[in-house]
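May I ask for a protein sequence together with how it folds?
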Amino acid sequence: MSSSLTPTSTPHAIPFNSRHLYAAADKCIYCGALVSDGKLGDEHIIPTSFGGNLILPRASCRNCERITTKIKDHCLKGLLSTARPHLGIRGRQRKSGLARGPVYIEHAGRVETTSAHITQHPGMLLMPLMPFPTAMLGQTAPEQGDGPVAVRIAMRPMTSDVAERAAQFMRGGGKVTLTKGLSAIECYRFIAKIAHAFACATLGVDTFRPYLLNLIRGQQPMFADHFVGSAMANDPRGKHLHELSFAPPIRLPFSEMIVVRVRLFSKLDMPTHYAVVGERALPGFQMLVPPGAIAANVEAGLR
């Protein structure tokens, strides 16, 4: 296969300890909007609230920015909120004083939020575990649209005494919960958003036909577990906070499907995820749908 068409498949560290700017997209990478009056926002490929510093300038219109912000906020509260103070990842509001973290306590079916100093706080990092993407198994997109999706959860305690720390909040009869609520489909959308933004930043917005736009924007059909999922087995523990790279592409007769590897919190031995972000023609062939077209429905050409 032509090396000019195949991005590196070797996992590599991303410089999350310093800002890295890609060339500006100058269009919305989610809906294709062209905005000439400065209203395109910068896209953080991995949100800053997750410790990300990769930025694709002028890449998201205000409407799509609201959509992706809701995805990020949901996954922040559901997956990372109790672990973040232990990891030293600051939020937008950098308050001085002692570090504290949220504690979610369930009483009579209601979840109340309190906080505790970092030395007493029970922190737990959660990451989703999904089935392997069916597109990577050679299966076709489902005929009848999307079925329900589900995830399992990989957990990493932030301290060795997390159970003892949690017990002090249960003396009044309450139950400490690990999350403020988590939707399976939002986990799929979160990985899809990261992978799509990384592909656009690295390969260029108009270089491939995108597959994940419906999923990111919450429009049917989404094909969530067809295009996005987790590795079948754990990778070795990484040395860096996060890893982003391209997996080997999936070869089709006249084109190839581009696969992005996403491993958040790799140094904490969290799962690896894959997202089939789109398709592009092999040398000497041309896509029937232009690679830069932002289609509302990605069914065409997938069966």
Observations:
- DSSP finds six helices and 13 strands in the chain.
- Confidence is low (pLDDT under 50) at residues 1-11, 292-303.
